[in-house]
Amino acid sequence: MTKYRMLSYIGIKSPVHSLTGAAKLIIFLLWSVLVMVSFYTPILVFLSVLGFIFFGLSKIRYSDVSFIFKLMSLFLVLNLAAIYLFSPEQGVIIYKTRNVIFEGYGRFTLTFEQLFYEFNIFLKYLTIIPPAIILMVTTHPSEFASSLNKIGVPYTAAFAVSLTLRYIPDVQRDFEAIYQSQQARGLELSGKASLLKRIKRTVPLLMPLIFSSLEHIDVISRAMELRGFGKNKKRTWYSGKSFSKTDIISIAVGILIFTAGIYITFKNGSRFFNPMAGF
User: Fold this and answer.
1) Which of 16, 115, 258, 265 has its CA 20 to 30 A from that of 4?
2) How far, in Å, are 34, 63, 188, 198, 259 from residue 192 at the CA level?
3) What is the predicted pLDDT for the residue at 2?
């Protein structure tokens, strides 16, 4: 049992699991485009709440994906800090108003616009992470590949994605085996050692993991080549599913939310919601 779960399929029964991979992928693409385009804060708040509701409906335990949430949280903090470090008045440029909270040193001032802009960036992450995790852990890799192929992705590329998703648990298992074998040999990698020492001692573990992964890749590629993979232009999918009534309704609701979100975002001629305009 690996210590951390990455984005591997978790097979349980839930309303989200019952949807086909193609339906979930279409909804996620619509969701992603809306989140990327819109800076309208009420929409982002609505989508973030809706995303966590879907996460609850998927019946995925937080402990199963906590490592991903923590990793993305770290990346989010670094991203927000970098935005302020390199462009402390980006919010002023975007919203075209300037309400200073306090004057800092040199160009490092703090404005309501900058805080609000970075809050929207935070909301974007909060909105996109749960649906992305849901898509990956509630869709079987083979079905996910068939879904990609169904929306026009070549089956060779779709199959490569499927193999990647299938291989994530194997990489976790190999790393855990190497990790435990090194601890059995007396290399301290637990919380008893300092963080810096653990990082230095973990880096050498990557080499056997890389060689093991390359060996697996070579075996799989040779097996696929011997079976004539890629010879034909089309292929059938054992795990492929046809759209059900629930899928069609879900896609229709997704299109409705997407259309309404785009309309509300651009109805005033700008995709940026600025509550400071009246200050």
Assistant:
1) 16
2) 45, 23, 8, 9, 53
3) 46
Angle at 117 between CA 256 and CA 270, to 5 degrees: 50
As given in the structure block, the two tokens for residue 258 are 């997407």
**CB count, 10 Å around CB of 206?**
12
> Which span out of 25-34, 62-71, 98-107 was modeled with the highest average pLDDT?
25-34
- How far out from the chain centre does Cα 3 lie? 20
* pLDDT reading at 263 higher than 60: yes
Q: How many CA atoms lie within 13 A of 210 on its CB side?
A: 5
Q: How far is CA 228 from CA 57, 210, 219, 232, in A?
A: 41, 27, 15, 9
User: How many whole angstroms separate alpha carbon 159 and alpha carbon 145?
Assistant: 6
Q: Is the pLDDT of residue 277 over 70?
A: no
Using CA of residue 137, residue 140, residue 145, residue 148, what is the dihedral sign? negative
pLDDT digits (tens, 9 = 90+) for 50-88: 999 998 888 888 888 887 888 888 888 999 999 988 888
Q: Scanning the structure block, which residue is given the tokens 């309704």?
A: 249
Long-range Cβ contacts of 147-155 (<8 Å, 24+ apart)? 147/20, 147/21, 147/22, 147/24, 147/25, 148/25, 149/235, 149/237, 150/22, 150/240, 151/22, 151/25, 151/26, 155/234, 155/235
DSSP per residue, 20-43: -HHHHHHHHHHHHHHHHH-B-HHH
